[in-house]
TrEMBL record:
Superkingdom of the organism of origin: Eukaryota
Entry-linked InterPro entries: EmrE-like, TMEM42
Sorted UniProt keywords: Membrane, Transmembrane, Transmembrane helix
Cellular location(s): Membrane
Protein name (record): EamA domain-containing protein
Membrane topology of the entry: Multi-pass membrane protein
Residue stretches spanning the membrane: 29-48, 60-79, 85-102
Length: 147
């Protein structure tokens, strides 16, 4: 399921870059706006699908990195924009960050008996208790695992 999520996140990033590229194309304004709208709608649909399989952090960072790198390279190759050494160094650091995030387990997701994805979270519950030494109410905390 995770690999499919990354495909959706990459698709979202590429579609966002295509929307930016479309804005610079020397074509009729109506067609330009139609392409921008098409690529943005496709980007959002892909991004939502990536969120179904990945954590929001993994989906967002992968989408951003793909958009940033593909937009920069498209500007360089198609529009002859200059890219500095710092841009390439930053792009490399972004790629390394995406690789680190893709190999980490941010959230543990499970499916319940209805097929819904749920998040396994450790949470603290405060229980009111009557304190023996004074007349006020105190609280104790317990840690519980919800599944």
């Amino acid at each position: 399921m995770g690999r499919k999520g990354y495909v959706w996140a990459l698709s979202a990033g590429f579609n966002a870059a295509l929307a930016a590229i479309s804005a610079k194309l020397p074509i009729h304004q109506f067609l330009r706006y139609a392409l921008i709208l098409l690529f943005n709608v496709t980007m959002w649909a892909s991004y939502v699908n990536s969120l179904k399989a990945l954590s929001s952090l993994q989906a967002t960072v992968t989408n951003f990195a793909t958009n940033f790198i593909s937009s920069g390279l498209a500007g360089f190759f198609f529009f002859h924009e200059s890219l500095s050494f710092q841009w390439f160094a930053g792009a490399l650091l972004i790629i390394i960050g995406v690789v680190i995030l893709s190999n980490s387990s941010i959230e543990k997701l499970f499916q319940n008996q209805y097929g819904e994805r749920i998040l396994h979270v450790k949470w603290r519950v405060l229980h009111p208790v009557q304190e023996e030494h004074d007349s006020g109410i105190g609280y104790t905390s317990t840690t519980s695992d919800s599944k």
